[in-house]
Amino acid sequence: MKVRKFLLPLLFGFGILFAKPTVYILATGGTIAGAGSSTEKTASSYEAGKVLIQTILQALPKQEIAKYAKLKSEQVLQKGSQDLTPQDWIIIAKRVNDLLKQRDVDGIVITHGTDTIEETSMFLQLVIKSDKPVVLVGAMRPSTAISADGPKNLFDGIVLASSKEARGQGVMVVANSNILSASDITKTNPVHVDTFKPANIGILGYMWNNKPYFLRISSQLHTTKSQFDISKISSLPRVDILYGYAGMDERAIEASIASGTKGIVFAGVGNGNISSSVEKALSQASAKGIKVVRAGRMISGPITQWGEVNDEQLGFITSWWHTPQAARIILMLALQSKITDNAKIQELMLKY
Ligand code: SIN
Fold first, then answer.
1. What is the pLDDT of residue 8?
2. Do 85 and 59 lie in a common domain?
3. How far apart are CA 241 and CA 259, in angstroms?
4. Which of 57, 180, 189, 253 could form a disulfide with 185 if both were Cys (CB 3.0 to 4.6 A apart)?
């Protein structure tokens, strides 16, 4: 009897010590869940978001997964990422926050279409309230293709989400063995598996032999250090992105204002430069209380303040290091939090 009393807690303790972390997989669709023709493994055409997570998981080596993590999974959405909306980001983020509060969830992997993975990951980067790893993975080839890249990305994502090294690194995307920060990522090629690149500084690290190797940490604030709280919201204010080009006039700006937008992120040319007629229209929009962010149509930043444009006089904010799509998310969250002062929004562009 005494031996049992002594042994049981000891065995329980050992159990905890040797138990693998639980990684929770949230599936949302995308090419990683895409299916092409059942007979042609090399055809380029396919439909995104067809295959459920249980089937995708069957492509992974079970015994090897078991060395790193216990898995739980859930199909939270089933769409191509081009159809995801800000409401969907909120659904995903609330589920992630709820799951990460559970003591028996150690990390999250989200399977996602690659087209807007940078937007969902940036949103999560700013609203997740946990240090536990959150990793997004996608694929450029559908699950039925010869040499599908989804299983490898998913495997790497699970190993990363189960690792101690990933804690506190913010939201990450793993693709083609590279680990990228949600704060600095963009899709650069519509077909190649090596499509994700940092927009500015460099990858966070890489996966090798089922181990993450981190090269740097992001100095931009994220997750537990972010001020944004979405626990009580179900929508975000409308913010449009407009794209500059030679010969552009003010009509697109007027249409955006007429649609009721609360903010415009303008992807200008060069250092976010804007033609005279567009500049006038944007400045008038700013004077009416519509927030205007000057971003750039090139991949990398920074879009600096007071270059050729007198931002203060015209009422503009600049995106600095952010792509237009990342700057849009910061602006949406700022407006949702009732932050409307240009100088304060400018600070947010720099710190996140
Ligand atoms: C999508 O983003 O859902 C389609 C494209 C992809 O996942 O690569």
1. 59
2. yes
3. 13
4. 180
